[in-house]
Every structure is written in C-alpha cells, then in structure tokens.
Write a structure and sequence with these properties.
single chain, 308 residues, Arginase, Chain A, 10 helices
C-alpha cells in the first residue's frame, strides 16, 4: 500500500495557532514505529501544477496564492498567514491526493497522510484549506483517462462545502458529506448527498446513518474510484467537532466505508482531513487507526481490482 507524505514541506504559523501542524510529522513517525507502514512504502509526491489546479480553481485565484497578493480578508478566510512555504505545502498536499488516486487505481488502496482540504472553493481558500485536493484529483484522473466517474465520501465533521460548490454542476463526480448540522461552515452548500447530524451524535446512530448514506451514494454515483476523507474530528474529544464518536466508533466507520467500497469493487484513495483534539496524540492515533484499517483491506481490494 503506497503512502504519500509531505510533512518535510511545512510553513510558519503564529504561536498558539489552533491548527495542529505537528500532527503530520508525528503521524508519519507513528505509522512506521507501530509497523503499520514500511519505510519503503512512503513516498514524497510531486507538487500539483498550475494546469492541474486550474481544473478546479480560477486561474486568478491560483496566481494570487502564488504571488502572495491575497487580500487581508482572503487571508483571514483561509485561516493561514501567506508564505512561499504555504504555497509549496499546499501544492504538495494536492499532489499527494493525485498520486494516491493513481496508486489506488493500480493497487486498490492508497493513502495521503494529509489532504482533505474540502473548504477551498473555486475562487477562495477557507477554513485552513488553500486548494481543494479532492476536486482537483478527481478531475486529474478524468483528464488522464484513468477514471470517468468519481465518488467523494466525506466523513470529516465539517461539511465539504468547497467540494460541493466546485462540483455542483458536474454529474461525473458525486459528492457525499456526512457532518455536524450546526458546525462550520454555517452556510452549507448542496452536495449530491448530505447527511446532517445533531450535536452529540454517538457511535450507533452515526454508523446507521453512514451505512444508509453509503448505500445510496454507491448506487447513485456509478463510480470507478472513491476519494475518502476520513477525518479525526467526529471524535468525542475534538475541540471543534461537536459529535461524540469513540475511538471504536471511528474504527467501525473506517471499516464500514472500506468494506462497502470493497463490496462494490471500488479502489479507494484515503486522505486524512481534519482533527483538532486537545491532545495531538489523539489525532495521530485516530489517523493511524484509519491507515491500519486501510492496510487490512489493501490486499483484498488489490485482488478485486486486478480481476476487473
């Protein structure tokens, strides 16, 4: 199972910034130390090109990000201070999802140790998201003739509003988001399928709703590839989550998504998406658990993909 990382490409943040940038390097170290992933299966991706980014973003916005000419309001909306390092990191994050999609189509499952930047819209960044990796990667796969139809399964606790907006008139990429009803973003966009959950939703209700949504999404999408935004933020200990899933509930979520995709013979590119627990190690543990579960499905999905 190929795993793509880019924590070597980081960017400066103000002291006490609430985005836990350290989680990425810790996650890479954790999955190696715990024997979840072999060092030789870790790969550094190429950065996404302007042409690739332009499949989902306006060129004027891409140039403003590149040149550092975003307005103060645009920078506040993005949530990160601009820097050349931020631009490189953001390109690599999208590049990781592109690479993971290519690898998943060959091997059944592949991982981006970051990604899930689903709030970025066609002309703006938002909510710690600069470029929308799922929208870009899905369209790159189509442009390269590798997949005609793509399904985005978004289990981050926040709605994938940017993904929904970018792809709202695109019938070839199906967007499914299951998220907190009263959580950010407060103005939701219309995904192809949305499931909104009340504050405090726990394991049992979440899994039941997710199962129903997955069955609908698989049937309606008629996809050849899944991009799965896992998300550590439905966790009961997440500062920004407002749902109440346990570690065990999150494991059942990942197993359900991957089992459903395996039953449909669908390759899966898994990206990490959000996580804001007070203890960064909780975030690392949740993401590592997702990667471990994905690894358990990798061999079975590789066999099924090979039979197509």
């Amino acid at each position: 199972m190929k795993v793509y990382y880019h924590d070597l490409f980081t960017f400066p943040l103000p002291e006490m910034h609430r985005f836990p940038i350290s989680k990425y390097k810790r996650l890479r170290q954790a999955i190696v130390d715990r024997g979840i992933v072999k060092t030789e299966d870790l790969h550094i991706p190429e950065p996404a090109t302007d042409e690739q980014l332009a499949l989902a973003h306006e060129r004027e916005y891409i140039e403003k990000v590149k040149q550092g000419t975003l307005s103060e309001q645009e920078i506040r909306r993005m949530g990160f201070p601009w820097s050349p390092e931020l631009v490189e990191r953001s390109r690599r994050s999208v590049g990781s999802t592109i690479a993971a999609c290519r690898a998943a189509l060959e091997d059944g499952v592949a991982i981006n140790l970051a990604g899930g930047t689903h709030h970025a819209g066609q002309q703006h960044g938002e909510g710690f998201c600069v470029f929308n990796d799922a929208a870009v990667a899905g369209r790159v796969m189509q442009a390269e003739g590798l997949a005609n139809r793509v399904l985005v399964i978004d289990c981050d606790v926040h709605q994938g509003n940017g993904t929904a907006a970018i792809l709202q008139d695109d019938d070839s990429i199906f967007t499914f988001s299951i998220h907190g009803e009263k959580n950010f973003p407060f103005r939701k966009e219309a995904s192809d399928l949305d499931i909104s959950l009340p504050d405090g939703t726990g394991d049992v209700e979440y899994i039941n709703m997710l199962d129903s949504g997955l069955q609908q999404a698989i049937q309606l999408a008629n996809a050849e590839l899944v991009i799965y935004l896992s998300g550590a933020d439905p966790f009961e200990g997440d500062r920004l989550g407002r749902l109440a899933l346990s570690m065990e509930g999150l494991a059942k979520r990942d197993q359900l998504v991957l089992q459903t995709c395996m039953d449909a013979n669908l390759p899966v590119a898994v990206v990490m998406a959000g996580g804001y627990a007070e203890n960064v190690e909780d975030i690392v543990d949740i993401h590592a658990q997702t990667i471990r579960i994905a690894g358990e499905f990798a061999h079975r999905l590789q066999f099924l993909i090979g039979q197509k």
